[in-house]
Amino acid sequence: MMCRLMLHEQLPEARRLHLGKGQHQGPMLAFLRQRLNRSRDVRDPVWQALERHLIPRDQRGRQVRGGYQLFRKAGFSQDWKSDNFYVYQPHSRVRWIVVMAGYPGRGALDEAADVLARIVKGDLVTREERIEPARRRGRQ
């Protein structure tokens, strides 16, 4: 579901959710994306890990043009904790969709979130470094 919501414009018509007409996001898709991108409870350890590694301190709690965008859907049922998040920078073509599930209890994903946030951050940073020199060489 996260893939279909976040990659709507890149998916073939038959794979898209019917949330608007044409290539662009309709009001329902925009609303769902906005709800997934809102600020979270600062006491949530998974959100703290994502924020700590992916969002500079001076940008936390507000939208910053060109900064990392985090979209997240967390769940909890029958002592299972689940988390889905989508991370990208608007100027980059690199995207991450991470899905985690853990048992038992609400703290089951805290440590995993920290490790995965570091991996995502490292990949987003190093991938941009690998892409940029190649782009420059192609322009010369």
Describe it:
This protein has 140 residues and is of the alpha+beta class. The protein folds into two domains: 1-36, no CATH class; 41-139, 2-Layer Sandwich (Double Stranded RNA Binding Domain), CATH 3.30.160. 39% of the residues lie in helices and 19% in strands. It contains four helices and three strands, in the order αααβββα. A three-stranded antiparallel β-sheet has the order 1-2-3. Helix 3 runs parallel beside helix 4. The radius of gyration is 17 Å and the shape is globular. The model has no long low-confidence stretch (mean pLDDT 81).
Quick description:
By secondary structure, the chain is of the alpha+beta class. The protein has helices at 2-6, 27-36, 45-54, 110-139, and strands spanning 69-77, 80-88, 95-102. Strand 2 and strand 3 (95-102) form a beta hairpin.
The tally of structural domains comes to 2
Name of the top-level CATH class of the largest domain: Alpha Beta
Q: What is the SS-derived class?
A: alpha+beta
Sketch the topology as an H/E string, one letter per element.
Answer: HHHEEEH
Q: What is the fold named in CATH at topology level of the largest domain? A: Double Stranded RNA Binding Domain
* General form: globular
Give the mean pLDDT.
Answer: 81
- Parts with pLDDT < 50 across at least 5 consecutive residues: none
Number of DSSP helical runs: 4
Alpha carbon gap, first and last residue: 41 Å
Strand arrangement, major sheet: 1-2-3
- Beta fraction of the residues? 15-25%
Largest sheet: 3 strands, antiparallel
User: How many whole angstroms does the radius of gyration measure?
Assistant: 17 Å
The CATH architecture classification of the largest domain is 2-Layer Sandwich
Q: How many runs of DSSP E, i.e. beta strands?
A: 3
Query: Percentage of helical residues?
Result: 25-40%
